[in-house]
Amino acid sequence: MKISKRQREYLNAIAVFVEANGYNPTQADLARQLGVHRNTVYETVRNMRAEGILTDRKGTRGIALPDHAATYAPRVYQD
Q1: Residues 6 or more apart from 27 whose CB is under 8 A from it?
Q2: What's this model's pTM, rounded to 2 decimal places?
């Protein structure tokens, strides 16, 4: 699966947030981290979920990376 530069930025931001805080970011957390409006995060995350790049996990707070994230975004955990 090919992902865009913006999608990779979001995946990296999620991974960095989880590593730093020990829990998944909310849309508001991502908006602050990326310096964008929360509505921008909402739309981008919604599109990424529709494309299967992000998935919802029961019992998790915020936005979680799917187990297969490293398959199409190998740099996710390197930033």
Answers
A1: 38, 41, 42, 45, 62, 63
A2: 0.78
